[in-house]
Amino acid sequence: MTGLIVCNGEIKDYSYYKSCFEKADLVICTDGAVRHMSRFGIIPHVLLGDFDSITPAEYGYFLEQGVKIKKFPVEKDKTDTELAVEYALEEECNEIILIGAMGTRIDHTLSNIFLLERIVERGARGWIIDEYNKVTLIKNSSITLEKKHDEFVSLLPLHREAGGISTKGLYYPLDNDRLTASTSRGISNEFVENTAQITVKEGWLLIIKSRD
């Protein structure tokens, strides 16, 4: 089951995310992202958060639409996005997509990227997607990427280093190599085939497809 979490970050081209909604079995909206849902014209299955960013009228509207409400205290130890990820995992989603999860607040952006580790630890695939980037994370495993548009592929260790990294279908190949967090060697690789295979044998590897 695919869960789609709509966060309160930056979204500019709302039409870009049509395919995300089409594949989603469960749509979770964090309370600050209500502004995005109105632009999408979609009613989520779940509205979740502390509701410090939503008006009483908006809250009442979603209640009338039969949306499931999950309310949490304003003063809490977790962001609304983390709570949404936990809910999606409890609902046994094996793929979780976050949109609106990046933007001007780099602290929230980094926190959301780190949440990918929680998702992988629970046996699911996590994605953070915006109009220019698709971010995922693998541990001791492989992934196949499809070439779309003029995209770059960047590989970054989530922690200090990752080893046993091999690639196929990219311009700058890696063969059982090691990447460390203190170098930029894994940045801005390019597709030379329609698909690329990436394997990491030791550690956590962030994989970022991006375009200008």
Reading the helices and strands in chain order gives EHEHEHEHEHEEEEEEEEE
- Fold-level CATH name of the largest domain: Rossmann fold
The low-confidence runs, each spanning 5 or more residues with pLDDT under 50, are none
| Structural class category | alpha/beta
Largest sheet: 10 strands, mixed
- The counted number of beta strands is 14
Enumerate how many helices there are, as a single number: 5
The dominant shape is elongated
Strand residues, percent: 25-35%
**N-to-C terminal Cα separation, in Å?**
31 Å
Mean pLDDT across every amino acid position: 95
- Superfamily at the CATH H level of the largest domain? Thiamin pyrophosphokinase, catalytic domain
Radius of gyration of CA atoms, rounded to a whole number: 18 Å
Helix content: 10-25%
Number of domains: 2
